[in-house]
Design a protein that fits this description.
OB fold (Dihydrolipoamide Acetyltransferase, E2P), five-stranded mixed beta barrel, about 25% helix, elongated
């Protein structure tokens, strides 16, 4: 009888573990941004044209844009849209090279040196 109970217990534990692995994630992992990233508002124009805080700017060749879920976003799909972002510039050219579109929660977290 104990052999059957032990088998049932192991099966129950494995079943629960399998369900937990297949369950959708309810908590989002906080993204970590480089210290050199700054906060701004970007409006995407016709690629590679953008506006940063209302001033004309450009994306660098090979610029990487991550959406709110951390997935790569294509500039063509963002044309005409504006977002609060963290971004970094390319050292050699000064063009915007990395962009992270922020979630509402991420926007609440102030960056060092950001205007309040």
């Amino acid at each position: 009888m104990t052999h059957f109970t032990l088998k049932s217990s192991i099966f129950a534990i494995l079943f629960i573990a399998a369900q937990a692995i297949n369950a959708p994630a309810t908590a989002q992992i906080a993204r970590v941004f480089p210290d050199s990233a700054v906060r701004g508002n970007i409006t995407f124009k016709s690629p590679p044209q953008i506006e940063v805080d209302g001033k004309a700017d450009r994306l660098s060749p090979g610029a990487r844009i991550r959406d709110e879920q951390g997935m790569l976003a294509m500039t063509g799909a963002l044309e005409g849209k504006s977002f609060v972002v963290n971004f970094r510039r390319e050292a050699a050219t000064g063009m915007v090279h990395e962009v992270w579109i922020l979630t509402a929660e991420e926007q609440k977290v102030k960056r060092d040196g950001e205007k309040k």
